[in-house]
Amino acid sequence: MLKFKSFISEEKKPAAGIAHIEHPSDRSFDGPDAANHALTTLRGVSAGKTPITRKIDDKMSFHAIRNPDGSVGVKYKGSGSHYNFSEKDIDTQHGHKPYLAGPLKALLNHIGKVLPKQPGEYQGGYMSEPHTRAMKSGQVSHTPNTIEYRTPSTSSEGKKLRQSKVSAVIHTRLVGPHKQAQPITSMDGFEEHPDFHQVSHVVSDEHRAIHPEHKTEADKHLDAADYLMQDHSYHHLDGHDTHLRTYINRTVSSGESPSVKGYKKHLYDALHKKVESVKTDAAKQRHAATRDASVKHVDANKAAFERSLKIHNHLQQATNILARSLDKHGAGGFSTHINDEEAGGEGYVANGIKIVDREGFSKANRARSEILRANRGKK
Predict the structure, then answer these.
(1) What is the dihedral of CA 64, 67, 73, 79, to 10 degrees?
(2) H or E segment to which residue 350 belongs
(3) Which of 37, 55, 129, 325 would disulfide-bridge 214, Cβ 3.0–4.6 Å?
(4) % helix, strand, coil for the chain, step of 5
C-alpha cells in the first residue's frame, strides 16, 4: 500500500561530491533528529566553538585529481563528465561549450602547482582569470556569479589575485569509491604558487567569534526554538517537507511572512497543477483526491503546522544574525558587494548545514536568477 508521502515527494538520489547543503531552519521539517542537529549546530556557531568554512559564490564547480603516477586531471562537476588530462581532452569533451572549456584549461594548466603531492581527489569552484577581473579606485575585483569580491590592489590578497593566472577555491576532499565529501578545514599540504590564487574558505578561530550583542540576540531565538521543540510532534510533516521548502523559498523572494494559510494555498496550487497536467478523467480524479487529502491534512493539523513554522522562523532568524556577524570579518580578505552595494557573503558551512542570511544573499541571488531566466525567455 502506498503511503501518503509517496504521492507528494520525490526520492532523492545521492551524487558524487557535495550534495545539496540545507538551511538549518529547513532541517526542522525533517523530524526531531534533524531539527536537534540544526539547533545544536547553531548553538555551537553562536558560541564560536564549531569549525566553519565560507561558502564561495563561484562561477563553476569542478573536480580535480592527482593520480598515483603524478598526473593531474580536471573535470566539470556536471553529471556525465569525465576527467581531462590534456587540453585536447577538454576540447573533445567540451569544445562546443567554451564557457566550460576555457576555465577547465586554466585549471588544468595551473592547479597541479598547488595540489598536495600525494594522490587525492578534490572539489572546488572556479572564480576568475585575468581577463574577467576589474581594476577600479585602487581595488581589484572579480564577480564570478552574484557577489563581487573586492580587495585593495596593494593588499596581500590583491597582489596575489592580480599576479595569478587563475583564481579558484578548493574546499572539499573526495574520499573512497563513492567519493564521499569531506570538507577541507586546513590547507596543510597544499602549496602556494603565484600562478594560482587560492581563495580562502577556512574561517579562523579568531574570525568565527560572534560579537556578544549578536550572540545574545541569536541565543534568544535559539532558546525560543528549543522551547517550542519540546514535546513537538513531527508526524504531521510527513510528505510535506519538499512542499514546505518550496513555499519558504517563495516567501524569501516575495517578502511574505510564512503562514499556514499561505502554505495551504501554495500546496493546493502546486497539487492542482498535477490535476491539470493529466488528460484522463481517472487520472484527474486521482490527483484531485491527493490534492484534497493534502489540504484537509493541513486543516486537521493546523496548530502543529503553526508551531513548525514558528520553530522554522526562530531558527532562521538566529541563522541570519549569526551570518551577519560572521560577515563583519569579510570574505577571506575581500569585501563583498551585490549590484555595487555592500552585502554579506554567500554564507558559511558548519556540521554539514549552511549558515546563510536568507534575507540578504539568498534573496538577492534568487532575484538575479529570476532576471536571468526572464532574459533567456526573451531570446
Answers:
(1) -60
(2) strand 348-350
(3) 325
(4) 45, 20, 35
- Which cell goes with 223? 532558546
Q: What gap in Å lies between CA 28 and CA 258, rounded to an integer? A: 15
- C-alpha cell belonging to residue 314: 526562530
3-state secondary structure 179-237: CEEEECCCCCCCCCECCEEECCCECCCCCCCCCHHHHHHHHHHHHHHHHHHCCCCCHHH
Rounded distance, CA 315 to CA 320, Å?
9
Inter-residue contact 94 to 76 (CB < 8 Å): yes
- Give exposure, 13-34, as e/b (b: 16+ Cβ within 10 Å): eeeebbeeebbbbbbbbbeeeb
Burial state string for 343-374 with b = 16 or more CB within 10 A and e = fewer than 16: bbbbbbbbbebbbbbbbbbbbbbbeeeeeeee
Sign of CA dihedral 130, 131, 132, 135: positive
pLDDT, residue 43, reads 98
pLDDT of residue 367: 56
Q: In the prediction, which pLDDT does 244 show?
A: 98
Q: How many CB atoms lie within 10 A of CB 6?
A: 11
DSSP state of 80: T
- Tell me what pLDDT residue 311 has: 98
Q: Are 166 and 110 in contact (CB under 8 A)?
A: yes
> The pTM is what?
0.81
Residue among 161, 111, 127 nearest 59 (CA): 127
pLDDT at position 18 is: 59
Quote the pLDDT of residue 328.
84
pLDDT at 168: 98
- Cell numbers found for residue 228: 517550542
DSSP code at position 14:
P
Residues of the chain short of pLDDT 70, as ranges, are 1-19, 330, 361-379
- Contact (CB, 8 A) for 128 and 142: yes
Q: What angle do CA 342, 134, 136 make, to 5 degrees?
A: 70
